[in-house]
Design goal:
This protein is of the alpha/beta class and about 400 residues long. About 45% of the residues lie in helices and about 15% in strands. The chain binds one RNA strand of 86 nucleotides through helix 15, helix 16 and helix 18.
RNA sequence: GCGCAGGUGGUGGAGUGGUCAAUCACAAGAGACUGUAAAUCUCUCGCCUUCGGGCUUCGGGGGUUCAAAUCCCUCCCUGCGCACCA
């Protein structure tokens, strides 16, 4: 397999969405230009059933790497997921069971296939780290642990912070970077890619590769999609876009993102060229309505996962729903007996969490009938005829009578 | 093992016998304004309610009291200090 050595393409790979590279970009560039076929992995712990847009950024980078003719490896951290990566978590994460982890992992390959090719020439490898981690003997673990000092490990800011705040920090949590680092050794890879929140762990793998294999593993850390307050997307509830969401959900969520995210998102989440993104930046500076670009962004992203026509539909649907106040296409529909109490239906359909919540919503005039845009003011409202309702901004239901 | 400090709502963190469903901040939801947003303003934010009130909550269990998140006992958990270390 010949690799791509076109300097322009190599440079694009090494710059777009990349935050830092270790030991340096030049080090990696030199190898790539020389035509060396490299292997690089991305590790994801299967802690939830879906991948989100944040994962997509690095998956895309890994796919770019594959497209350049190199060996891409997707590592499912089924073993490490059970320990829980302490990244960003002030409290320790609940440990997942083997079963949960495997169920989650199952969905990952499918979702990752949007980017990575797992068949054909130069196919990506899919590996699980339980393959080696679960088989390690305690003596081997100790041997591994002897490569790193406590102080080196505690340099990780999250650990430091917890110590300072007198919060519990467990041994198995301190061990986490070691295990992740060992993945690099076990796979004997040339490099690793991950979000910059993974830098510490990735560098641990780099250190271990050097110590144990005498190998100079490179590390590429990518930019994260963060909101202006610095929070990772997905952290703030509601704005996380899962890769398996419907076109309409995706579209709506992206449009509700804050404007500051438009340009970074274009760079990180789409294939729109750097040149075009620079043009957009100028447009914004010249006073263009950010909304138009955001719509373009949303369509661009939706199209990646659902196709261009679905993206157009999503836009149309969004306009109808939120601009014209019509019912969305994927509205929940229920059939009820004549005279049924609205409160019971909404509670049963989990549109509201409690009757108290509905009471508040009705008092705030948040429950309106779509057809005539009239607020339902009566908590004891009974369903006598087919009716479509909007509750707040985002909740809809279509009720018909039997 | 001993001593000290703690364990409160999605989070941080008040409250140390009654006026506590529990100050406040953040997060969240709704309304207004908008561009779908952001910012801003207003409201809400345990569950049920015939809107009078009722019910269940402050690590678990037990107790004292007319009355406990608040006092006592006990168990579990965390942090810190001390001791132990053949």
């Amino acid at each position: 397999m010949k690799t791509v050595t076109d300097p322009v393409k190599v440079d694009e790979f090494l710059s777009r969405a990349v935050e830092v590279a270790y030991p340096s970009k030049d080090f990696i560039r030199a190898k790539m230009l020389r035509g060396e076929r490299l292997s690089m992995y991305l590790g994801i712990d299967p802690t939830g059933p879906t991948l989100h847009l944040g994962h997509a950024i690095i998956l895309k980078k890994l796919a770019d790497f594959q497209a350049l003719g190199h060996q891409a490896i997707l590592l499912i951290g089924d073993f490490t997921a059970m320990i829980g990566d302490p990244t960003d978590k002030m409290a320790l994460r609940k440990k997942l069971t083997k079963k949960e982890v495997l169920t989650n992992a199952k969905f990952y390959k499918k979702q990752a296939s949007t980017f990575l090719k797992f068949s054909g020439a130069n196919k990506a490898k899919l590996v699980y780290n339980s393959k080696w981690l679960s088989r390690m003997k305690f003596a081997e673990v100790l041997e591994l642990a002897s490569k790193v000092t406590v102080d080196q490990m505690l340099k990780r800011d999250m650990f430091e912070k917890r110590m300072q705040e007198s919060k519990p920090l467990y041994i198995h949590e301190i061990m986490y970077p070691l295990l992740q680092g060992y993945d690099s050794v076990a796979m004997n890879v040339d490099g690793e890619i991950g979000g910059n929140d993974q830098t510490f762990n990735m560098l641990m793998g780099r250190d271990l590769s050097k110590t144990i294999l005498n190998k100079e593993k490179f590390v590429i850390s990518t930019k994260l999609l963060v909101d202006p307050s610095g929070k990772k997307m997905g952290k703030t509830e509601g704005n996380m876009v899962s890769l398996n969401q419907s076109a309409q959900e995706m579209f709506g969520k992206i449009l509700s993102w804050t404007d500051e995210l438009i340009l970074p998102a274009f760079e990180l989440c789409t294939n729109v060229s750097i040149v075009k993104i620079a043009e957009m930046k100028k447009m914004l500076e010249a006073g263009a309505n950010p909304k138009d670009l955001k719509v373009r962004l949303a369509k661009e992203i939706v199209a990646m996962y659902h196709g261009a026509s679905a993206a157009d539909e999503a836009e149309q649907n969004f306009t109808n729903t939120f601009k014209k106040g019509e019912l969305p296409e994927d509205v929940k529909e229920v059939v009820v007996e004549k005279g049924a109490a609205l409160a019971d239906i909404l509670l049963r359909e989990k549109i509201v969490e409690s009757k108290g919540e509905l009471r508040r919503l009705i008092e705030a005039n948040a429950v309106t009938e779509i057809e005539n845009n009239a607020a339902i003011g009566d908590f004891n409202y009974k369903i006598e005829r087919a009716i479509s309702l909007r509750i707040g901004k985002k909740r809809f239901i279509k009720i018909t009578v039997r």
